[in-house]
């Protein structure tokens, strides 16, 4: 099986990008890291790993121009999979339509709980027993696409927003490369934006669930 080309979109630190770079696999190759922030630390991580980078600075362009530039870049890159890893811009409809079923995101909560921001605070305020991260397909509705995998952890009584964020990050670094690998080795296929398990891996349960 040939390795799949992936593009990773970031806005900041890029610790998930680092986990995706460090994951040992022949199933995917990162052909480009794209950022909407020229100063994103993740761009340095990519450069150290000899991965091409592109920055489309969101504050230099109008929303319409930014969306058009991003769409053109993604069309030119022609990747098999577009991986959002802390990309803070909401993709516009043209991008989502152009790559229907080919875009995935990681979100720091056990979706469908806590879409949007402040997920750690919300989980603490709700006195939840568990928290975690979700990898899902990207659709027009924010954080609502079909779920591919989740990593769940226990919230301890001493947890604060800071400690919980750190724990969820660690969980993400396990979950995200694994799910990307499953997609790229075709153990999971995303048809019409619905995750489907292909026949040869009937042992896989979708969503993939990891308990830490
Ligand atoms: C992660 O918590 C991810 O769930 C969210 O943005 C954060 C990105 O962190 N979408 P990093 O830049 O990968 O360190």
List keywords for this structure.
Rossmann fold, 8-stranded mixed β-sheet, binds 5-O-phosphono-beta-D-ribofuranosylamine, single chain, alpha/beta, 212 residues, two-stranded antiparallel ribbon
Explain this structure to me?
- By secondary structure, this protein is of the alpha/beta class.
- It folds into 2 domains: 1-99, 3-Layer(aba) Sandwich (Rossmann fold), CATH 3.40.50; 107-212, 3-Layer(aba) Sandwich (Rossmann fold).
- The chain has 6 helices and 10 strands, in the order βαβαβαβαβαββαβββ.
- The chain has helices at residues 15-22, 41-48, 63-77, 93-98, 119-125, 161-184; strands at 4-10, 28-35, 53-55, 81-84, 103-107, 130-137, 147-154, 188-191, 194-197, 208-211.
- Strands 3-2-1-4-5-6-7-10 form an 8-stranded mixed β-sheet, with helices on one face. Strands 8-9 form a two-stranded antiparallel ribbon.
- α1 (15-22) links the parallel β1 (4-10) and β2.
- Bound molecules: 5-O-phosphono-beta-D-ribofuranosylamine.
- 5-O-phosphono-beta-D-ribofuranosylamine binds at residues 10, 12-16, 85-86, 106-108, 133, 169, 172.
């Amino acid at each position: 099986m040939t390795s799949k080309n992936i593009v990773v979109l970031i806005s900041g630190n890029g610790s998930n990008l680092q986990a995706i770079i460090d994951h040992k696999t022949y199933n995917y190759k990162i052909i480009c890291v794209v950022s909407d922030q020229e100063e994103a630390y993740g761009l340095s991580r990519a450069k150290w790993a000899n991965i091409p980078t592109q920055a489309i600075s969101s504050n230099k362009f109008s929303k319409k121009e930014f969306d058009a530039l991003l769409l053109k870049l993604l069309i030119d890159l022609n990747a098999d999979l577009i991986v959002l890893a802390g990309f803070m811009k909401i993709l516009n409809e043209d991008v989502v339509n152009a790559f229907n079923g080919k875009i995935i995101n990681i979100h720091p909560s056990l979706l469908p709980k806590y879409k949007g921001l402040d997920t750690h605070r919300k989980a603490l305020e709700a006195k939840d027993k568990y928290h975690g991260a979700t990898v899902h397909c990207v659709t027009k509705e924010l954080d609502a696409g079909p779920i591919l995998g989740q990593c769940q952890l226990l919230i301890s009584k001493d947890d604060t927003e800071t400690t919980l964020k750190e724990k969820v990050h660690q969980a993400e670094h396990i979950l995200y490369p694994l799910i990307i690998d499953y997609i790229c080795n075709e153990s999971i296929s995303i048809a019409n934006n619905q995750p489907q398990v292909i026949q040869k891996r009937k042992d896989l349960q979708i969503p993939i669930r990891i308990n830490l």
